């Protein structure tokens, strides 16, 4: 079974010889060859530099043996050219956070193929590079709630006070902003699929800050709308909710084909709750990649065993790869995944 | 029913006229009279200044009508005088984080009554002040895992890499540190009870960073040991695990009398899982205190209704009160709790 078939079948709940494997944020600072590229260009430049973005996207394939490639980009990229005044310092920062109806109305009509055409060029180039290897290409986008969190806070945040004040005091402003973001995200993901992405992942990194009731009001309907409008016939949709153990049922009901689990979710319980409706992805604690190789193998075997009754399972971390992760730990992770196939007669 | 009887009965699962109410971090920066005291002394000075600590502990009673008082202090206080070199900048920071067996062995034998006697003097004074009002006094401690996280990281952290490296690579060092902390915490809580605390709360603010399996290995046995050694006949034990939706079952099995829920836990589900074994505390999103008064009332009613089938319920937030919380929001919260008693014939 080739890696593309394995990943697509696992996402759709069809039988596979063993779970496919890749890592969130697999192209990043833990790789020396990535750090060398970053000495030449800033993070934002790298996202729009087609040659270099293709290069860093492919780096983990060679170095750590992952079996899928994810577009190198940032969740903020589709917002560029939409009238948002963002700088990377190093995280995304807005001089003027978006908190009023007037600011929401001033946002340009979403047109990602016009405003960030290089993203789709990177996708096309990657698909060409990967065709002969039969390695699948994954596209992605930040989810509306997470993008709204950045836009309203003006950057990262601990307590998300500005966002929650808007939620509680001026909900119609936040609803307007989310509606604009849904349109943007749907166009952005569909354009990636058209350019060659074979799977697309929606990252709702911050949606886990909400209580279960507030999540069902503010986030679930947005995910459902995206799942309904993205061309899932051409590319399965994966949904990741950061720190989302308490909203797992809602994630399962989102309409996504795969739910990507934070490491703080009990995998066996997620299998039970999924009731065969979705495949699951994850969910090793990224910090565990600094453990001895034997321990990483044991944890991968335990994950695969826990997830075996699921409709499908994609081996992955429960969060993005950390910058100081040892390369040999990542290698051990993908080796352990391949070892699951030994003796399976595949 | 007086406030002391109401709180103690709710903690022990005995019938009450309505849920008692207090707020985590109810004495703090959101109160103008607290900010005035803090203009005169540093945070750490305030923790050891008996007169002022008593004063700020009592402030929320008068201003926002909470029905319990919690000792004003910091989870780092019992570590002072134990050979730990900590500064507040403004969070606790260690010049030399504890990461070796030698450093663990160099820690002094825990002796909180000798090293931080003012804590127990504050407790004694508060109990005297509150006796006539029949307002209960709550003591507290940080839990070993959370204190270990600070000691190993040398301060706050986002990914807790140093702590997790120790967990994965030198577990015996972390076990030694936790064993020392268990001894300290048990002595510290029992000395507070002896000085007059009527309820004690254990704050495991950071334990939610662990996967469910790692939590069961590293945290649950520690909680069980503390629950077995603290004088719970004299003062019920409340356990708070920050961001702990994924370890709720383990928190329920901790031996604590009350589990205090993060706002990201579904309260109705927690009631079901508790199966009458523990009482529950919580769990409004602290950010919701900036909502309109009507909305706060509606949320308090919804919480009380969801928790009604529980063994007992203490109305509280799902995290500490935020510094920019409007005073009128806190007042609305306690008013809403009292309004639950109207018409109940109590």
Written overview of the protein:
- Two copies of one chain form a homodimer.
- The longest helix of chain A has 25 residues, at 171-195.
- In chain A, strand 7 (258-260), helix 14 and strand 8 form a beta-alpha-beta unit.
- The radius of gyration of chain A is 19 Å and the shape is globular.
- The first copy, chain A, has 16 helices and nine strands.
- In chain A, helix 4 runs parallel beside helix 7 (117-131) and helix 8 (144-153) packs across helix 10 (171-195).
- The model of chain A has no long low-confidence stretch (mean pLDDT 96).
- Chain A has a single domain, classed as TIM Barrel (Alpha-Beta Barrel).
- Chain A has 346 residues and is an alpha/beta fold.
- In chain A, the strands form two sheets. Chain A has a seven-stranded parallel sheet, sandwiched between helices. In chain A, strands 2-3 form a two-stranded antiparallel sheet.
- Chain A binds chain B through residues 159-161, 164-165, 168-169, 208-214, 243, 245-246, 263-266, 283, 285, 287-288, 290-292, 295, 302, 318, 322, 324, and chain B through 159-161, 164-165, 168-169, 208-214, 243, 245-246, 263-266, 283, 285, 287-288, 290-292, 295, 302, 318, 322, 324.
């Amino acid at each position: 079974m080739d890696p593309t078939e394995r990943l697509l079948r696992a996402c759709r709940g069809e039988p596979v010889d063993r779970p496919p494997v890749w890592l969130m944020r697999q192209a990043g600072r833990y790789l020396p060859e990535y750090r060398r590229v970053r000495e030449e260009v800033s993070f934002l430049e790298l996202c729009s530099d087609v040659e270099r973005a293709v290069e860093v996207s492919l780096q983990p394939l060679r170095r750590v043996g992952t079996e899928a490639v994810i577009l190198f980009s940032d969740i903020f990229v589709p917002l560029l050219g939409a009238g948002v005044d963002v700088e990377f310092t190093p995280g995304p920062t807005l001089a003027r956070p978006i908190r009023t109806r007037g600011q929401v109305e001033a946002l340009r009509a979403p047109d990602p193929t016009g405003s960030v055409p290089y993203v789709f060029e990177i996708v096309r180039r990657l698909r060409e590079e990967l065709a002969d290897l039969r390695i699948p290409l994954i596209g992605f986008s930040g989810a509306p709630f997470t993008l709204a969190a950045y836009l309203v806070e003006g950057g990262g945040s601990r307590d998300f006070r500005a966002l929650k004040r808007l939620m509680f005091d001026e909900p119609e402003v936040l609803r307007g902003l989310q509606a604009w973001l849904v349109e943007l995200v749907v166009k952005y993901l569909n354009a990636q699929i058209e350019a060659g992405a074979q799977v697309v992942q929606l990252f709702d990194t911050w949606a886990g800050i909400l209580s279960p009731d507030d999540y069902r009001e503010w986030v679930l309907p947005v995910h459902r709308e995206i799942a309904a409008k993205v061309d899932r016939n051409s590319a399965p949709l994966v949904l990741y909710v950061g720190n989302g153990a308490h909203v797992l049922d809602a994630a399962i009901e989102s309409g996504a084909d795969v739910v990507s689990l934070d490491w703080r979710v009990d995998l066996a319980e997620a299998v039970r709750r999924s009731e065969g409706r979705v495949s699951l992805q994850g969910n090793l604690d990224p910090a565990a990649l600094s453990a001895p190789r034997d321990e990483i193998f044991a944890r991968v075997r335990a994950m695969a065993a826990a997830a075996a009754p699921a409709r499908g399972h994609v081996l992955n971390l429960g969060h993005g790869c950390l910058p100081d992760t040892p390369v040999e730990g990542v290698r051990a992770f993908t080796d352990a995944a391949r070892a699951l196939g030994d003796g399976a007669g595949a």
